[in-house]
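Prompt: Have a read of the protein record below and flag anything odd:
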Amino acid sequence: MSLFTYISSKLGSWVLISLMVLAVSCQGGTNQPLAHENIAEQAATEGMPEITFEKSQHDFGKITSGEVVAYSFSFTNTGNAPLLILDTHSGCVCTVGEYPNQPIAPGGKGTIEVIYNSAGRSGLQIQIIRVITNTAQQETILQVAAEVLNN
């Protein structure tokens, strides 16, 4: 008696079909390395970009509630491959990061402008902006602060 005949007589055809689908679906995977393995491989063969900021924090000082202020964080691609700024994230809609959409060549420079809207805020405000890149680190933290005074 074959394994196929034995399983179908004991478990029924619906279980057999389920097992066959599972067996076929498990063979469809790819042998692609995980993301961190891709980064290590790319670094070894092609080089990697690296983002270096002149400074990562800025204090706007005392501002009036409702005032909109901005600061440009300057950076350099100190790596040996093109740098891509993929996105910026902030924990508050009051803070926005504007970034270049084009690749930055090795040795190239750029800025990320952080705009802070103090409307509805008061007291010491500290905002964190996450800069997402194609570097090995993948994320760099920028920070702005202000003491917001009520009118």
About this structure: The two ends are 89 Å apart (CA to CA).
